[in-house]
Amino acid sequence: MEKQNSVAKVLRIIGFAVMIGGFLLASIEGPGESTGGMTLSALFSSFVTGMLFIGFSEVIALLQKIYHQLSQSSSSDNDKVEVEQPLVPKEWQPSPLDLDTIQELYPGQKIKISASPFEDYCVVQIEGENHIEVVEVGGFKPRKITADSEPVLVNKIQNWFEK
């Protein structure tokens, strides 16, 4: 059985109470007035206010469901081995902006930047050094990828570069 959030429950009750109270108030006060403008205004405002409360309660209830699903899946994911996304070679070229931002990662160093066969990953050769570095340019700013963080990707790119 799912545990319902108490805040969502209270907001839902308040929403229905506001709607029912507005209807009752409008029906009691309405017949005594000469114009129906105030009655309609009270009905409309109580309906909108009640629906806002009910809507907020639904949002909270949905967020609670998402939280429970994520917490259950993360506890069961600890037992599973992480599945790697397949890396598909693709022909692409980094943009001039990508090249400039990669250059900023290596201030004062002469580097050669090449596109790897895997989209959004570049190979950086630092002049005077024997190894290469892998840089991802697909995010907001480029970041260096190490063999510790993504060993399969780095190994594939190193094997491609050595050929």
Task: Walk me through the structure.
With 163 residues, the protein is α+β, with helices and mostly antiparallel strands. The chain has helices at residues 6-29, 37-77, 96-105, 151-162; strands at residues 111-115, 121-126, 132-136, 143-145. Strands 1-2-3-4 form a four-stranded antiparallel β-sheet, with helices on both faces. The longest helix is centred in the middle third of the chain and has 41 residues, at 37-77. It is elongated. The chain starts with 5 loop residues before the first helix and ends with a helix. The model is unreliable at 79-84 (pLDDT under 50).
In brief:
The protein has 163 residues and is α+β, with helices and mostly antiparallel strands. It has helices at 6-29, 37-77, 96-105, 151-162, and strands at residues 111-115, 121-126, 132-136, 143-145. A 4-stranded antiparallel beta sheet has the order 1-2-3-4, with helices on both faces.
Could you tell me the mean pLDDT?
83
Tally of separate helices: 4
Order of strands across the widest beta sheet? 1-2-3-4
Uncertain segments: 79-84
Pick out its properties:
163 residues; alpha+beta; 4-stranded antiparallel β-sheet; 4 helices
Outline the secondary-structure elements.
Blueprint: H1 6-29, H2 37-77, H3 96-105, E1 111-115, E2 121-126, E3 132-136, E4 143-145, H4 151-162
